[in-house]
Each structure stands twice: as structure tokens, then as C-alpha cells.
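mind reviewing both lines:
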Amino acid sequence: MTYAAKPHQKSKALKPGSRRPAKELCSECGLCDTSYIHYVKEACAFINQQFDKLETLVHGRSRDLDSPEELYFGVHQSMMQARKKEPIPGAQWTGIVSTIAIEMLERGLVEGVVCVQSAVDDRFTPVPVIAKTREDILAAKVNKPTLSPNLNILDLVERSGLKKLLVIGVGCQIQALRAVQDKIGLEKLYVLGTPCTDNVSRAGLQKFLETTSRSPETVVYYEFMQDFNVHFKYEDGSTELVPFFGLNTKELKDVFAPSCLSCFDYTNALADIVVGYMGAEFGSQWIVVRNETGAEMLELVQDAITTKPVMSQGNRKEAVQQGIAAYDQAMTLPMWFAKALGVVIKQIGPKGLEYARFSIDSHFTRNYLFVKRNYASKLDQHVPEFAKRIVAQYKLPKS
């Protein structure tokens, strides 16, 4: 996307520890840590939800609510499953995100890449950087499942004089970025998004690891996967699978950030291209190309990846409906039964795009109830129309 920079009205950034304008719903995206806080009441996804406006700004139109695929996955030109032919060692998946970023930087399409490295003393503490070398990008591989202030580098971007930039981020960060993108002074902005749900504070992550993992201190990364297990990867190279249905819901129900419990942008609708896993078969990545800029980005790595069409199998509806009550009542199954149930569901449960819809339905119904119960006055404006239609398919608890 190319645009002329508009005058930037500056305000003093908030001091560390200050309460943010979104209050307890703040996702700590980093905008308020910069002079761009002047725009927070317009830009913050948790103060001013504006999907239709921003989708039209970025993609030239808003999503077609009568299209089953766009209702769920947003504006897009194409979707596919993919794997890198030669995976990047240590990447969480096969390394498609890192590869796109490296190609864009080394071919001169961008002068810097906003990505997230880890703190020297803690792999799960995010450190946003402007990467300017291949090594900088590779140092950011692997997800950090904690709230991350990616946008705190906006003032640095402005001061540096960079004109062509790639930003890698999750939905709440990208919504705020899109709302201020014409103030940064860029000639070209590329956005590579990842799907995101259920991030936590660093303290919340520690509680999750200690409650769920066999060795919290040696976890390298984890992910809630399509086989209905949480996959933990450890320093020694081993993997542990913990079934969704065996999680200690009572202990973990309140560990997720309120911003994540009130978010309806699981699929990162405002990115140019999205790379994740939830709409793919197990072992593959899911790529959603949203616009021509995203298509340009994907073209850079076509020779490095293998692709195949997306697929959809199974029926999510009953599982979602049962899950609403189970989560609401904080039910936890005995581990032996949870493992057995997981084996069965892996064989007959939803796969591919149907699994993605299962995940979206489960989170949207939960989040709708969270907003209704805790922020009733915000419910109508905050929940976008596509989310209301998805939630309307299910019977929710009355209270």
C-alpha cells in the first residue's frame, strides 16, 4: 500500500506502568508507548472497533458476509496449505514467515522488518525490533505467546527515516497500525499477519506452563494444534502432548488476558497475507492471501515451498455447543478419559477449514459471553457483525 504521509500530531507517551486508555482491556500493543498515543481513541481495537472501515481502507472492500468463507476468514484472494521444502532449523513450523521476511529484506523491497526477538534472560519475554539483517530476522523465529508491544517502535521508525517497511504482527497490533499508517511517513507498508488467540501476561504464561507442562523451565515453545492436543517442545528436542480436554480449566480459565477474551480478530483480517496453521491439515501451514500486496509477498517464496489446496472435513457444530457449557462450568476430565476422547475426535472430528471454524466458533462464543457479562454497554458496538452472525448459530447460557 502506497500513500502520502499526513502531518503527525504528537503526544507524550505514557510512562511505564501507567494505566492505558483501554484500561483492563489493553492488549499492550505498544501504541501508547509512543507519540502516536494521540490517536489511541480512534486506533485502539478495544476502544473503537472499526473492521468495515479498515477492511475497505486496506483491501478496497469489506468482507462479504453472505460468503461462508469470507464470513469466517475475511477478505481474501486465495487460501492454501503449504510447507517449506527445506525447513528452517528451530522454526516453530517450517519457517515460511521468516523466509518471506528475509526475501523482502534481501531483495530490497523493504529497509527493515518489525518482528519480535526474545529477552536475553527469558525466551518468552518479547523484545520488538526493526530487523535489518537475515540474522536479526532468524533471531525472532518461534512465537512468543505473551502480550507484546510491537508498536512501541513507531517513533523509532519515524526517526530512522525508513520508507519501506514490513511489519509482522497479530490482530490487535495490526488494527492499531492500520489506523495510523498514513502518519508514519512510509512510502510502502507490507503487513504479514499471524492468527492469534489467548495470549497471556508473562505471569499468566508461567501459571499455564506450571499447570500444564511436565517441565516448565525447559519449554521452547507450545501450540494448541489441530489434533486437539497442546504440543510442548522442550530444550532436549522432545515433545509432550496434552489433550485439550484434560486441561485444568478451573485453574486456567482466568489466565488469559481480558483483551484476548474480548477479541474477534482471530484470523488477522487487516494483514496483506496471513501465515498460520489452523486452517491446514496437521503438519502443514495455512496461508491466506488477502490482497495484491499479499500476492506479491507470496510470489517471493513460491520456489521455496510446496502447496496444495485447503480441505474441509467433519462437522464442528455439536462439539462447539458442548464446549460452550464445558468451558462455562470449568469442567476438567480425568486425564485418561481426555486422552481417549482426543484419539476419537482426532479420527472423526473436524479437519482443515472445518477445524478452523471450530476454533473460531469456540472462541467467539466464549468471548461474546465475556463481553456481555463484563462490558454489556460495549457489546453491540464492540462485536463486529460477522462475529454476531457466527455466534448466533449457537445457544448461549442466559446469564
About this structure: The radius of gyration is 20 Å. DSSP finds 15 helices and 13 strands in the chain. Confidence is low (pLDDT under 50) at residues 1-5.
